[in-house]
Write a structure and sequence with these properties.
Helices cover 29% and strands 23% of the residues. It is an alpha+beta fold. The protein has two domains: 101 residues, OB fold (Dihydrolipoamide Acetyltransferase, E2P), CATH 2.40.50; 202 residues, Chloramphenicol Acetyltransferase. A hairpin with a 2-residue loop joins strand 18 and strand 19.
Length: 421
């Protein structure tokens, strides 16, 4: 019997999802565990697979739609079934599953969104809404369309959107690629353009919420240390000479991660988190690594980092970072870390403070390795230095304990051979 199928909740933290791509088409048969569609959540792009067999009789929303869990997205049943009654129910009483109208209300203009909301509730095969350019300069597009725009070097502000509130959907983007490009203006005058306003993606909304809560509820304090990075750089050079035969390489960040793990093992009281009426002292060392992606920041976790060698850490971090940028990480690979590492040294940043990632108790912010004059035995010589700032949750880690952990970290950086113990 045909039934209306809602968007499944694909992760514990999923409050809404963007239907990035339909894999199955209308009329196609679906077997158990077949991939029906790809859905972008606040964590990653997830696979929606079938629990029951049937035929995809009707697609109710287009690619790019932003939906809450259980919002109607398709009708699945047996081949040849009459679904007119189900469609009538949707048209008569079901609210639009697409939440893009919220972004329009935030941007102003009361009362002007009802026709577009009704268009969003209509079946995907209904007549195409008129395409009009957005006059306010806002660009509304799904993360999937934004990814395509980056790949094709397309300015989305030039693409008319036919979705709710002028949202650019995949069909609009495909048609733009096929259409001739408008000729560049020969005018030499410059026009003041309004700011580009983009609705928050699910991931960016989650980042904003969690970091705001962190700064409002976690009493941060900061400790900064300047370390001699020359021994670390020399150790990396030796390691990479050994790894070169296998076509592998260890980054500075891989060695710093190992030093963090060693320090957590040597100062176990710092490997803790606040739990309301108690403090949890973790018996494992799971280090979260900050990875920048186009939509924001994710923190995949290297489990048992204190028990792994540099080669294994380098391989794992490279794999996690690659899959993070492709949004292929599983939710369990981004949760339950006990400590975080954030490194902006590759961008030339010498010093910064990071926001704690709750419920973890500390995060280390590492700056660039730099050359500068230092005093050794009363003589000024060329030195290699690196600054690191530790953000601590004062409910868990006091100043003396944080300083003790930084001393252990400094020792591991300046005497890398001790990481082998």
């Amino acid at each position: 019997m045909a039934e209306i199928v809602g968007l499944p909740k694909l992760s514990p933290t999923m409050e809404e999802g963007t239907l990035a791509r339909w894999v199955k088409k209308e009329g196609e048969a679906i077997a158990v565990d077949d991939l029906i569609a790809e859905v972008e959540t606040d964590k990653a792009t997830m696979e929606w697979r079938a629990f029951d067999p049937g035929v995809l009789l009707k697609i109710l929303v287009e690619e790019g739609a932003v939906l809450e869990p259980d919002a109607p997205v398709a009708i699945i049943g047996q081949e040849g079934e009459d679904i007119s009654d189900l469609l009538a129910q949707l048209e008569a009483g079901a609210a639009s599953p697409n939440k893009s109208d919220e972004g329009a209300k935030e941007g102003g203009g009361a009362g002007g969104d009802e026709p577009e909301a009704a268009a969003a509730a209509a079946p995907a095969s209904s007549s195409k809404p008129e395409r009009e350019p957005r006059a306010d300069g806002r660009v509304l597009a799904s993360p999937y369309v934004r990814k395509l725009a980056l790949e094709h070097d397309v300015d989305l502000s030039q693409v008319p959107g036919s979705g709710p509130n002028g949202r650019i959907i995949k069909r609009d983007f495909d048609e733009w690629l096929k259409s001739p490009r408008p000729a560049a203006s020969s005018s030499t005058s410059f026009e003041r353009q309004p700011p580009r306003v983009e609705k928050l993606t699910s991931m960016r909304r989650t980042i904003a919420r969690r970091l705001t809560e962190s700064k409002q509820t976690v009493p941060h304090f900061y400790l900064t240390i300047d370390v001699d990075a020359a021994p670390l750089m020399a150790a990396r050079k030796q390691i990479n000479a050994e790894l070169a035969d296998d076509g592998e390489k260890a980054s500075v960040n891989d060695l710093i991660l190992k030093a963090c793990a060693v320090a957590l093992r040597r100062v176990p009281d710092a490997n803790a988190s606040f739990a309301g009426d108690s403090i949890r002292y973790h018996q494992v060392v799971d280090v979260s690594v900050a990875v920048a992606i186009p939509d924001g920041l994710v923190t995949p976790v290297v489990r048992d980092a204190d028990r792994k060698g540099i080669r294994e850490i380098a391989r794992e971090v490279k794999d996690l970072a690659t899959r993070a940028r492709d949004k292929k990480l599983k939710p369990e690979e981004m949760t339950d870390g006990t400590f975080s590492l954030s490194n902006l040294g590759m961008f030339g940043i010498e010093e910064f403070s990071a926001v704690i990632n709750p419920p973890e108790g500390m995060i280390l912010a590492v700056g660039a390795v730099r050359k500068e004059p230092v005093v050794v035995d009363g003589q000024i010589v060329a030195g290699t230095r690196m600054k690191a700032t530790l953000s601590c949750d004062h409910r868990v880690v006091d100043g003396a304990l944080g300083a003790q952990w930084l001393a252990a970290f400094k020792k591991a950086i300046e005497q890398p051979v001790l990481m082998l113990l």
